[in-house]
Amino acid sequence: MRHKQTLALLAASLLTCSSMSAQAQKGPEWLADAAFYQIYPSSYMDTDGDGIGDLPGITSKLDYIKSLGINALWLNPIFESGWFDGGYDIIDFYKVDPRFGTNTDLVNLVKEAHKRGIKVCLDLVAGHSSNKSEWFKQSAAGDRNDRYADYYIWSDSISQKDKHDIELRNQEADPQSSKRGAWVEAPNASRGKYYLKNYYICQPALNYGYANPNPNHPWEQSVDAPGPQAVRRELRNIMSFWFDKGVDGFRVDMAASLVKNDPDKKVTVKLWQEMRAWKDKYYPQCVLISEWSNPEVSIPAGFNIDFMIHIGTNVYCTLFFPRDTPWGKNKNYTECYFDPSGKGSNKTFFDNYSKAYNATCDKGYIALPSANHDFQRPNIGRRNTPDQLKVAMTFFLTMPGVPFIYYGDEIGMKYQPGLTPKEGSRERSGTRTPMQWTSGPTAGFSTCTPDKLYFPVDTEKGKITVAEEEKDKNSLLNYTRKLLQLRHSTPALNNNGKWQLVSQEGNVYPMVYTRSLNGVTYVVALNPSGRKAMTSIAHQGKATPQIVTGKANYKTGSKSDQLTLNAFSAAVYRINQ
Ligand code: NOJ
User: Which positions of the chain have pLDDT values less than 70?
Assistant: First the structure.
């Protein structure tokens, strides 16, 4: 008997231990209830009339942001930049770009955000700097003893294929904004004839070393070599510089790109595990969010949240990218699931997402954002009415993991096709247009004349503006608020509630899933198609609607329950067993 008791106690303590350590790996407690808002700072609110948004502009809108139910921000890069890639070509990692204000403006933004219970995360461009940065200039100058000599990857000889890539790139319409090729010619550098880039040519790769350096390639240093180790120290320094100013975390740009020739990412993972251990020791309340799009690798690497987006694992596109748009163009599916034609399938999403979710839900969070600065908004092409957008928003705000709303999606801002590229934006311009606050030529974003605007605005005759939607209790804006309120007040629907698809996967409408925690279950049903749709699911219980958009009916049976949803409808039910 005593033996049995001891065993039971041991089992219980093991359970607590494992759940405690899983909890610790998931990160600080605030993440369990976090709902993020992503701001592209150039486009949110301009207070000095130059047509470009700034930090005081964001600070002035914190009450609005809070009113949404948002409690965390991620800002795209705000550091001094060469502006050839929307701020991702950083000149000085320790200084706010003058177009946005000063470091003091950032400290003030953080202070004001914290007063309102809002966390502030910045963008950590870990893989590269601008070729205009002091680091790069000094490295290029060629003094081998210089502190920055090995901050970058230099070579005097490259392969024929690499040379050919350079030629092809030079023939492209805008070589600056070409992603082609790995090496860039550096005619004025004494350090080497070529440098390795990470993305655009203005973005030389920082040297974190190679996973398996080839002895015949002198530019391939080991990750333990002095240069790569100095770069790691610099990265930690950048993080602590901003953490010490009150910043709550970083979204890490191209997090998988740091260690070169690392096909299985083992050495990159080790690097991030080291960073995570360091962060947990000194800044346990801060978080790391990866742009990796492969949670099965990035979460064990130490990230608290990983985005599943347009890159990496095939999840996001099959749900949201219509075929006739820049992001859906070359994809091999009939239509995306959230297309009004109702010809989409959620099978690829289900297969990949559920695998990633099941493997990581105890250790970290997956984020399926409403959009971001690199791809389309939900309002694109034929998906353009408030009813359709409410169905999409229901998905974004009832999935597990940490929700991210891209600024303006809460009012249904439209992806603007065909805009002239700016600062390396390519087709991404249409997703970076100024926030639409009110009607009028600059949508209340700036006091400048419309020709000075960072990108043009189109409020659809004032309809798609915060001011208009505030007045309408059925607006997407107010619907978003309702969803976030329900999420925050309902543990089963919040970031840690379990998720399971209960409708069949494939070309099935509506899509139905459960969210549950501690014996409490909610059912979410979504019909993004333009036709009425009905499906049967395993019996759940009696269902009480919490939120409905459009028209939905839940019929409880003895063995199975039946859901019928009109075109463009969604519903969230609480189940009473
Ligand atoms: C990913 C960022 O999201 C994108 O905007 C940028 O162009 C590249 N990384 C390069 O930093």
Answer: 1-20
